[in-house]
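User: Some background: our group keeps a shared notebook of sequences we're curious about, and every so often someone picks one and asks for a predicted structure to add to the entry. Today it's my turn. The entry only has the sequence so far, pasted here. Could you supply the structure so I can complete it?
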Amino acid sequence: MKWLPLMAALGLAGGLRAQQGWLPLSRTIDANGGAWMHGFGNSGHSAVRPYLREDIPGSDTLITGTRPFLLQRATDPSRTLRGGPLLDLLAGPSVGDSSMLKYRAGAGGWLEWSPGARWTFHADGMGWSEALPNYLDSTARATQVTAGEGYADRTDATVTHLDWNAWADYRAGEYFHLTLGRGKNFFGEGIRSLFLSDEATSYPYFRITTTAWRIKYVNLFAMMNDIRGAGGDPTRYRTKFTSMHYLSWNATKRLNIGVFESIIWQDNDPKYPRGFDISYVNPVIFYRPVEFGLGSPDNALLGFAVNVKVGRKGLVYSQLMFDEFLLGNVRSGEGWYGNKQGLQLGVVMHDAFKVDGLTLRGEWNYVRPFMYTHSDTRQNYSHYGQPLAHPYGSGFWEAIAHGEWRKDRWLLTHTASFAVMGADTALTGYGSYGNNIFRSDRDRIRRDGVRGQDYGYYIGRPSEVLVVQNELRVARVIEPRAGILLEFAYTFRSEAPEQGDAFLTNYFRAGISTNLRDRHAFQTRRYVLE
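Assistant: Of course. Here's the predicted structure to add to the notebook entry:
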């Protein structure tokens, strides 16, 4: 009898609660939740990711099967304490590379705790050692990081890197979530986002999420790093801050309208030694008037989204992003450098052709030269040497076709991308054509040896590059809530520059992969960080 109080306490600690916290920012895990919100008659704000579990019915079974999964009880989000291992073990040949055998070996774990009805805590981490295929290896050498996963410590042909995420979430009443953590956020309906994507490495942030009536409103305050010139020493990174808003409004049962705004500033400018500027904490005011009121040189961006549900399970989506804009210069078509805009158009259909589990998507992204750049390169739209929006940065257009079929534990996906972009040449040492977001927009090519040229900046200049990439994955789910798969994958990639040699990749791999966070295989080398 003396053990009964202890047993009761342990039973309470391991008991069941309503599902709390956030889903992982992974399309492998949250895709069914997004598809449910896209359905006509269902509510939700699918452009704001990661998703709250409470917003999606049955979010603990986003990947289902006919039999219980491994670790299903330990990872059940209705439990007070849950967690599990993370494992990557993939290997295969990259045909044509100087060293053919490539591999990805990583291990880690995740743990989540909901001690009460309002609090949830989460932590996860992994470390990797990799021999990357040629195109990813050259990108890692140029940027000093493994895309989305941290600083790339190099030993000859291999890289090691570490990534971790953690957050504490408090549900403040019926309408608010306050989240403090380290991780990523995503605003948009597409595979890409021109607002904020998960392409860059994780960052510290504080987030206020408000959901009321037909509106979801996010205030995001984050600290970013400029790693140039630091040689991988975190004590030498230059700090900058960003403050963002995203407003999602379900205007009707079919129409959703989004508004995005962002401001980026650094804390180590002798002219503006202000650290975190309290002026940008205001949760409702537009930043551009605040910026002008301060007389500061900070980098402000503004975006709009229009998303329309079609049929029973389809969505047409769009994003329009502005850095700078003068309508007269847009209409003239003369390629003014200050026409800094980006456009995304896409359509996605779920259960396409009445096939259960089949999702088809088409997407087009267009980003003008000099978009996401700034006169002060420390304030460009980047973190840890990587773009905060599209992985190609600026000066490109891209078409994507994506298909996915899910059946019980099986997952089949195919993604094809065709992109046209500009590449700098040896001549561009004399000035920028707007393809490198880490060069100042004042560092333009010189028309008379002194003044920067204002016109003539188009996608594909000064030298055009065509990038074609296809990725096929066939996988069987081992553990659904961490996205652990037994998979076979094949990547075909062709990079054909107008000047220089073409590059071809045929990369096969098989093994166990973890998809607690999305992997970022669609990369290309567009700049070199010093």
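Suggested note for the entry: The chain has a mean pLDDT of 88. Residues 163 and 245 are 26 Å apart (CA to CA).
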